[in-house]
Write a structure and sequence with these properties.
InterPro entries: Cu_amine_oxidase-like_N, Mao_N_sf. It holds the Pfam family Cu_amine_oxidN1. This is Copper amine oxidase N-terminal domain-containing protein. It comes from Lysinibacillus antri. This protein is mainly beta. The protein has 2 domains: 193 residues, OB fold (Dihydrolipoamide Acetyltransferase, E2P), CATH 2.40.50; 93 residues, Copper Amine Oxidase, Chain A, domain 1. It contains 4 helices and 25 strands. The strands form 6 sheets. Strands 1-17-18-25-24 form a 5-stranded antiparallel β-sheet. A 5-stranded antiparallel β-sheet has the order 19-20-21-22-23, with helices on one face. A 4-stranded mixed β-sheet has the order 2-7-9-6. A hairpin with a 2-residue loop joins strand 24 and strand 25. The longest helix is centred in the last third of the chain and has 11 residues. The two termini are 34 Å apart.
Length: 301
């Protein structure tokens, strides 16, 4: 029987988080994690704020920033893919002693450990330059959820996602976004002309797309999860050539020969064995054991 899985995600909602420049660094108050989490609207991100005490490099190539003071202790991971900006919207780097606000996707699983360890999507570094950052959601009229702010998007406004992909203004509707701005027009609702907007989502990778496919399109046969061969392989960038009784799946110097009706398959010049037999479980659609996805992923760069 075909089955579809659904992921139940816990959603933590926070409201606008403002970052404003300060004249002297020593006057900045470090806000605790608890103080920075608020429930307003439908924003799916939490923010953690503090001053970086120490940065260490781990064996995985990731970095870990430690935040420690009298009131709290926590840390976060970051790497070359983490988006890091200052409060004016410029790309910057993290250093010890910098004050920051990190935005964490509350829908992602988090290890329950103390001190807390986060994996933020975006990190904003506080500077003395003029610039404010706010976490918001906007409707089709670009009015925020609290209905106290409207944004005027111009041709000069940079709009992109977490992958750095340029987007049109319609792409921000009902999405979690960070807006960067300086000038606010005194009105109600107040009017803002943002210089940059970051949509807090990114284009899924090929591997993420492949796993998303098998979450919805699979059969269970004799206790084994069977997944669509061509759809998954081509999503991962493999070439799939039909043989009439199965398929040859290839990419670079890697080749798999799959034959329906037998658990034996070819891996380059070697023979291996599946736990279950590949079969046509839908018209013109061969399904293979889930273990094949794991083999394909091993060879994706």
């Amino acid at each position: 029987m075909k089955k579809t899985t659904a992921l139940l995600l816990a959603t933590t909602m926070v409201g606008s988080i403002m970052l404003t420049p300060v004249a002297k660094a020593e006057n900045v108050e470090v806000i605790s994690v608890e103080e920075s989490e608020k429930e307003v609207g439908n924003v799916n991100f939490i923010s953690v704020t503090g001053t970086i005490t120490k940065i260490t490099e781990e064996s995985t190539g990731n970095f870990f920033a430690t935040i420690k003071n009298e009131d709290e202790e926590f840390g976060f991971y970051f790497n070359d893919e983490t988006r890091i900006f200052d409060n004016t919207g410029k790309v910057t780097e993290l250093k010890e002693g910098l004050k920051f606000t990190a935005f964490v996707d509350a829908r992602k699983p988090m290890i329950l450990i103390y001190p807390p360890r986060y994996s933020p999507e975006v990190i904003i570094v506080q500077t003395e330059e003029a610039g404010t950052v706010a976490l918001e959601q906007f409707d089709e009229k670009f009015l925020n959820k609290k209905k106290d702010t409207v944004i005027n998007i111009s041709d000069d406004t940079v709009i992109e996602d977490l992958s750095g992909k340029s987007l049109k203004k319609e792409a921000i509707v009902d999405k979690d976004v960070l807006i960067f701005y300086e000038v606010v027009l005194e009105s109600y609702p107040m009017q803002i002309g943002p210089s940059k907007i970051i949509v807090l989502e990114k284009e899924p990778t090929a591997i993420e797309k492949a796993y998303a496919i098998v979450e919805k399109d699979f059969y269970e046969v004799n206790g084994e999860m069977m997944i669509p061969l061509r759809l998954v392989a081509e999503t991962l960038g493999y070439k799939v050539d039909s043989t009439g009784t199965g398929a040859i799946v290839s990419k670079g110097n890697v080749s798999f020969t799959i034959t329906r009706g037998t658990t034996i398959y070819g891996y380059n010049k070697a023979l291996r064995q599946f736990k279950e037999t590949p079969e046509l479980l839908e018209q013109y659609k061969t399904y293979v054991p889930y273990e094949f996805l794991q083999l394909l992923v091993e060879h994706v760069n």
